[in-house]
C-alpha cells in the first residue's frame, strides 16, 4: 500500500472511531419544525482525525525502525481513545420551532493540543 493510501486508510479508521465514541441521541416527540444541526461536530471530528493522522504519519516517516514507529502510533491512538468519550442526549417533547445546534469545546481543545504536538514534532524533524 502506498503512503497516500496508508494515510487515507488511517484517517478513515480514526474518524470512524472518533465518531463512534461521540454518541448523540436526539429524540423528537410530538413536535413540529425541529431543526438539528450537527455539522460543527462532524467537521471538528474530521479535523481531529486529520491531525491525529498527520502526527502518526510524521512519526512513521521520522522513525527508521518500523516496530518502534508502530509502537509510537499505537500509543498516540491509545491515549486519544482514553480521552474521547462523549455522550449527548436531547429530548424535544411537544415543542414547536426548535433549533438545536450541537458543538463540543472538548473537541476544539483536543485539536489545539494535537496541533501543538504536530508542530513540535515537525520542528524537531526540521521540517518547519
UniProtKB/TrEMBL annotation:
Its cellular-component GO annotations read: spore wall
Output one GO BP term: sporulation resulting in formation of a cellular spore
Classification via InterPro entries: Spore_coat_X/V
Q: Does the keyword Membrane apply?
A: no
Lineage top rank: taxon? Bacteria
Could you tell me the keywords of this UniProt record?
A: Capsid protein, Virion
Q: Which residues form a coiled coil?
A: none
Q: Is Transcription regulation included in the keywords of this UniProt record?
A: no
Q: Name one Pfam family in it.
A: Coat_X
Where the record annotates domain Spore coat protein X/V, the positions are 23-63, 72-127
Q: What is this protein called?
A: Spore coat protein
